[in-house]
Design a protein that fits this description.
38% of the residues lie in helices and 18% in strands. The protein is α+β, with helices and mostly antiparallel strands. The two termini are 17 Å apart. The mean pLDDT is 83.
Length: 45
């Protein structure tokens, strides 16, 4: 399951650079994503 999630993230690349203004304001970024894997389909929020 972990490898499947990593592959999904890799396939979605490339990602836009993180904006400089936000880098100046924040030194830690938490990205929370919920994926639900079911027989032959994937949903995310």
């Amino acid at each position: 399951m972990d490898e499947a999630a990593k592959q999904i993230v890799s396939l979605a690349a490339p990602y836009a650079p993180f904006p400089a203004e936000l880098r100046r304001q924040y030194d830690i970024l938490h990205i929370v994503r919920q994926w639900k894997f079911e027989h032959g389909k994937l949903s995310g929020r």
